[in-house]
């Protein structure tokens, strides 16, 4: 019985002290997907990337056609038992390697197109962040939340990182 009173008192104090604090906060949210589809810079970047991708794909297709032609030549030479079959085979191996290299350099995970996309997104998201900051400050918002990702703006006075680090250092020195 005494224990339940203790929990009720703790719950009462928790509600009592939490309510005034949360009533003072001003929180807003954004829909980043809508910004992505409606903000012109995103559309332009996507168009540029599609254009670059088409150029790379065209060049890749040309290389594959050339390799297919070499394969056909090789098969003909091999069937005719001519000596030139080996030189074509070496050229074929080199062509396959150059296609793989081209593909990795252009559209691989560390490729040129991926780097370009990352750079464009970084620049655009920097603009979005500045806009969110301005809206938050001008509107007196404490937090702006992206409904799908997380916090985009916060007042530095609510940042508890230093306090947590201090406590972590204290725990480490206590051992």
Describe this protein's structure.
By secondary structure, the chain is mostly helical. 78% of the residues lie in helices and 7% in strands. The protein is built from six helices and three strands. A hairpin with a 4-residue loop joins strand 2 and strand 3 (151-154). The chain starts with a helix and ends with a helix. The mean pLDDT is 78.
Question: Which terms would index this structure?
Answer:
single chain, 175 residues, mainly alpha, 3-stranded mixed beta sheet, 6 helices, 3 strands, 7% strand
The mean pLDDT is 78
Give the tally of structural domains.
1
- SSE string, helix = H, strand = E? HEHHHHEEH
End-to-end gap: 38 Å
Strand content: 5-15%
Shape, per Cα inertia axes:
elongated
Low-confidence stretches: none
Helical residues, percent: over 70%
Topology:
Elements lengths: L1 H23 L2 E4 L1 H7 L1 H41 L4 H23 L4 H28 L3 E4 L4 E4 L6 H14 L1
Parallel strand pairs: 1-2
Antiparallel strand pairs: 2-3
Helix pairs in contact: 3-4, 3-5
């Amino acid at each position: 019985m005494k224990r339940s009173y203790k929990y009720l008192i703790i719950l009462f104090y928790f509600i009592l002290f939490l309510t005034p604090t949360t009533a003072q906060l001003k929180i807003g949210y954004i829909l980043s997907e809508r910004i992505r589809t409606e903000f012109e810079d995103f559309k332009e970047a996507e168009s540029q990337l599609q254009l670059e991708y088409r150029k790379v794909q065209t060049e890749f297709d040309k290389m594959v056609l050339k390799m297919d032609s070499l394969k056909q030549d090789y098969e003909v030479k091999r069937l005719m038992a001519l000596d030139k079959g080996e030189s074509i085979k070496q050229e074929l191996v080199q062509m396959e390697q150059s296609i793989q290299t081209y593909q990795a350099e252009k559209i691989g995970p560390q490729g040129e197109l991926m780097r370009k996309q990352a750079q464009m997104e970084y620049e655009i998201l920097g603009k979005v962040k500045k806009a969110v900051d301005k809206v938050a400050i001008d509107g007196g918002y404490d937090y702006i939340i992206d409904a799908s990702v997380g916090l985009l703006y916060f007042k530095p006075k609510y940042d508890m990182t230093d306090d947590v680090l201090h406590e972590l250092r204290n725990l480490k020195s206590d051992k």
